[in-house]
Amino acid sequence: MPLPLTREQVGKASTWLLLNFGPEIRKAVEGKPYDVAIACAIACKETGPMWVSRIDKHKPAEILALQVGDASGDFPNTSRKAFPRNTAAFRSRYGDEFTEMLIGEANKARTVRGFSPAKWVYKGYGLFQYDLQNVEKDEEFFRKKLWYNMDSCLERFTLILDSKFKAAGNDEREGVRRYNGAGASAEEYADHVMTFVGWCRGTM
Q1: Is residue 90 in some structural domain?
Q2: Looking at the DSSP assignment, which residues form a beta bridge with residue 125?
Q3: pLDDT values of the chain reduced to their tens digit, one per residue, 204 residues
Q4: In sequence order, what E strands does the chain have?
Q5: Number of domain units in the chain
Q6: What is the model's pLDDT at position 203?
């Protein structure tokens, strides 16, 4: 699969991230086995295609609010193993009010991207795509829409990446790969992110 962003787009995205959220990102990675470039590169890979073309049209806070993605389990011909496997599974456990709120957030993002409304609960939230499976232990993040807040996104992102890097013996590529999972798609994910890391470091 080709890279989802060009070198020029990654440079533009990382510059925007540091201009608007540089202090927060630097504080979040301080003392970690990974750096600002890795954080920016993962944001580019996870959600960059959804926002890099919009940073001249929307305020930073608006960009954060619209980072709702991943309709797996509901989008035709897709499946998902983690809870919730689909919108029906989420609704069954958490009820209509919570479900409809998340559908509404997904549709705000869909509208900006030029898509018509759907009745799907999306599974990824925030610049780093904090997965909805975490609702079972971190319900507050989703109920209170904390992906609107960069510090809240970074707190969850670094907590997960810390564990992945620890398991990887602080190897950069392996830590990045584990952030995405296992298998061929995770290997490709790591290849893309590490390419972006090199480009990001070239602009910092």
Answers
A1: yes
A2: 68, 130
A3: 789 999 999 999 999 999 999 999 999 999 999 999 999 999 999 999 999 999 999 999 999 999 999 999 999 999 999 999 999 999 999 999 999 999 999 999 999 999 999 999 999 999 999 999 999 999 999 999 999 999 999 999 999 999 999 999 999 999 999 999 999 999 999 999 999 999 999 877
A4: 68-69, 124-125, 130-131
A5: 1
A6: 77
Q: Is residue 86 part of a domain?
A: yes
Neighbours of 153 (CB within 10 A): 25
Number of other residues whose CB lies within 10 A of the CB of residue 189:
20
Beta-carbon count within 10 A of 79 CB: 9
Secondary structure, 3-state, 114-153: CCCCCCCCCCEECCCCEEHHHHHCCHHHHHCCHHHCHHHH
Quick count: other Cβ atoms within 10 Å of Cβ 194?
17
* Cα–Cα dist 138/150, whole Å: 16
Structural domain including 160 reads 7-201
Look at phi and psi of residue 109 and say left if phi exceeds 0, alpha if psi is from -120 to 50, else beta.
alpha
142 lies in some domain? yes
Report the alpha-carbon angle 191-54-180, nearest 5. Answer: 25
Question: Which of 28, 60, 48 lies closest to 158, judged by CA?
Answer: 28
End-to-end alpha-carbon separation of the chain, Å?
A: 27
Strand-pair partners of 68: 125
